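Private note to self, pasted from the team thread so I don't lose it. Backbone tokens:
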């Protein structure tokens, strides 16, 4: 086929026909489709634009596409729905907790740790290996290879290995896929934030994060996850993302 590209698959490293792989899995984009326009928003560097489809790039062979789909993506759809809707499902429970300052968090239980941790890591890994200019600011360096091996061997490591922390929006707001420019340090560790609609994922990318306080919030081996609630009005990153989304051609009702 003319469209085939033969090169090294980024996951198994073998020379194969490469598929046009999604960087951000398609089901995450779904809330971004508007029923009127059937379009999807993509936020570029300060320049909102509209795309018909999620961005794809020749990255993986068919076997590795299947590997990610079957082992991580497909089984994560229900978990993702639970997070985005903030409601329990057949297998996942949700309860609200508050601290002394009345800060809210949702505690999820019943999440398949290995599946969901590797699903989350597969996103930041794809963002890191992508050549698209929008994703240039995320570069995992030597951790890219370590995470590749974890994904290939279905090894999620411990909760403190590349801890993944989830924040959720406390009020409904229409938010896009957004990756901020800066990569902040948390307790001295490198971290990356990726906002996927109303879910923000913090990745702590460090080889010595075992003692980090933030591990208390990471998705855990026992299937629990504490998602702190953020007000979109108070968090600059979310405000920026929402403002950018508002400047695009999205019907008003999507913001309500
Ligand atoms: Zn492959």
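Design output:
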């Amino acid at each position: 086929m003319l469209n085939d590209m033969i090169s090294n698959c980024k996951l198994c490293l073998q020379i194969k026909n490469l598929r046009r792989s999604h960087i951000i899995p398609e089901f995450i984009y779904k809330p971004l489709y508007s029923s009127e326009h059937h379009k999807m928003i993509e936020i570029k560097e300060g320049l909102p634009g509209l795309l018909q489809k999620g961005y794809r790039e020749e990255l993986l062979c068919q076997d590795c596409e299947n590997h990610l789909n079957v082992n991580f993506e497909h089984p994560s759809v229900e978990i993702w729905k639970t997070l985005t809707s903030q409601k329990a499902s057949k297998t996942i429970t949700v309860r609200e907790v508050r601290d002394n300052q009345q800060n809210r968090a949702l505690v999820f239980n019943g999440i398949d740790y290995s599946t969901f941790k590797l699903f989350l890591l597969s996103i930041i890994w794809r963002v890191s290996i992508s050549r698209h200019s929008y994703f240039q600011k995320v570069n995992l360096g030597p951790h890219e290879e370590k995470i590749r091996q974890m994904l290939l061997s279905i090894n999620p490591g411990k909760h403190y290995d590349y801890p993944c922390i989830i924040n959720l929006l406390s009020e409904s707001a229409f938010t896009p896929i957004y990756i901020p420019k800066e990569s902040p340090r948390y307790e001295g560790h490198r971290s990356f934030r990726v906002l996927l609609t109303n879910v923000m994922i913090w990745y702590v990318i460090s080889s010595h994060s075992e003692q980090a306080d933030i591990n208390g919030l990471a998705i855990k081996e026992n299937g629990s996850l504490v998602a702190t609630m953020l007000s979109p009005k108070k968090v600059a990153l979310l405000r920026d993302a929402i403002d950018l989304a508002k400047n695009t051609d999205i019907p008003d009702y999507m913001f309500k």
